[in-house]
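Researcher: Structure for this, please.
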Amino acid sequence: MNGALPILTCDQARAFEAALFGGDEAREWAAMQAAARALAAAIETDFAEAASSFPSVAKVLVLVGKGHNGGDALLAAARLRERHPALALDVVYAFGERALRPLAARAVEAVAAFTRPVRADGRDWAPAYDLCLDGVFGFQFRPPLPESVARLLARVNAHPVRLRAAVDLPSGLDASDAFRADFTYATGIAKTPLLGLPQAGRLRFLDLGFFAPSRPWNCHPLGDNCAGIEPAATPAHCHQSGDIGSEARSRDWLLTERVLAPIAGLRDPRGDKRHNGHPLILAGSRRFPGAALMATLSALHVGAGLVTAAVPESLVPVFAARVPEAMWVALPETPEGGLALEGLHLVRAAFERAGSVVIGPGLGRERETLALAAEVAALSPHPLVIDADALQPEIVAAGRSARILTPHGGEYSRVADALPPGAVLVRKGPVTRIETAGAGGAVYHSFFGGPVLGRGGSGDILAGLLGTLLAQTPADPLGAAARGVVWHGLAADHLARAHGATAVRTTQLLDFFAPALRASAA
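Model: Predicted structure, C-alpha cell format:
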C-alpha cells in the first residue's frame, strides 16, 4: 500500500541501520541531527494539547544513556533552546559522562554551554519540569533494567512533569519501573515493541527518509523477513517511501499521511456530483437519533457528491431542516422507534443511486431492526460499511458484497467467528489496526488520533467518512479503510492541538477534516 512503511523488530532494525550507515559516523551524525530536528518540532506540536504553546521559559529534564538515543535527546533539547533562549536544561547521565559513546559525547558539546548536570537521585532537580526527554535506552536494550536505572525512572515517573517524551522506545519497555511516556517518538523506523505497549503512551513516527532514495543516506531494500539486507548498488534498487518493494516480508505496517495522496490533490475538473461518491446511510432510531445525523454530516464534510440517509420517519423533518444537502428517506418505525422491516423496499429503491451502503450508526438492537439490516446486507449490490449495533454475526456474514467492519474489542469478539473471508477489519483502539479477515497477511497500524476520540459519536463520524471513501473507490475497500482511519485520526490530532482533548464536542471533529487533509499534502 502506497504510504505505508514497515514496522520492524529490533533485530531487523539493527540489521537495517547497519546496512544503511555502514559504520560511517558522518552519516550517523547527519541522521542524529535530522532526528533531533524532527523530535523538537514534534514535541512543540504535541505540546499544544497540554497548553496553548510550548513555554518560552521552559524547564527541561533529559535522561541520557550511553548511545544514540541520548544524543538524539540532547540535540533535540539544543533545537528547542534555539527557539526558546530562556529554556533551562537539566541533564542526568544515567551511566556517567565517561560511558558516553562518541556521537553521544559529541551531542553533549552542543548543549554544554547551557546544561546543568543533575544527580540521578533527584535531590537537585527542579520542583517541576515542563518536559522530560527519555534517551536512556533505545532498541539495543536487553532486559532486565539495571537497578540504578530502575530507581532513576521510578523517580522520574513520580516527579511533576507536564509532558514526558520517549525517544524511539520508552526505557525499560514493559518493566514495572519503565519510563511512562505521554508520547513516544519512533525515529526513522517504527519497532514492533511499541505495539500494544501501555508505557509508550501516544505513538508518533518521525520519518527520517530511511526508505527514500532521494535522501543523503541512500536507501536499501529489505531482504527476506527484513533481516538479510544488502546495500543498494544503484538507485534502481531503491524503493520510494511507502513502496519498498515486493521483497519486504514485514507483517506489520505503519500508515503515514501519504496514504491520503489520492484524495489530497485537485479534483477532476470534468467530474460532477455523481463522480464524487454517494453513500447510502441506514441509521438511527428514536433512542439514538444523533448517530445518524453525525454519520450523514461526516459524509458531507469529507466531500461526498451525494448522500442519502434512510432513517426513522419521525426524524426526517428535523434532520432535513438541519441538513438540507442530504437526501432523506423516511422509513417506517417499530413501536419502540427502530427501523421496521416493512421499509426494506424503500432501501432497495435507494440502492439504484448509491455507490456504498453504511449500516449501523444508532440503529439499536431491536430484533426487527437487525433483521432489516441483515436483509439490506444480503441484498446490497454495493460495498458495505458495517458499524456499531449492526456488528452482529448474522449481519456481517450476510451477502457477498465487499465490506468494511469497524469493531472495537468487544464487538470483535462478538463477530469473530462469523467474519467472511476478505472482509476488511478496522479494529478500533489507541492504535487502530486494519487487516483483511482470513488473509493472514499485512496488518496496517495508524498512530494518528488520541484521547479526543474517546467520546460518543466519533465512531459514527468514522462510519460516514468510510462510506464516502468506499463509494469513491468501491474496488479498493482496504485502501478506503486506510485513508479513512488516517484522515479521522489526523482530524482528531488537529482538533486536540487547537482546543485540547477535554473541553470539546465530538462534532467539532467535522471542522478539522479540511485542515487535516490540506496539511497532509504540504
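Researcher: Any notable elements?
Model: The first helix runs from residue 10 to 21. The chain has two domains: 4-255, 265-516.
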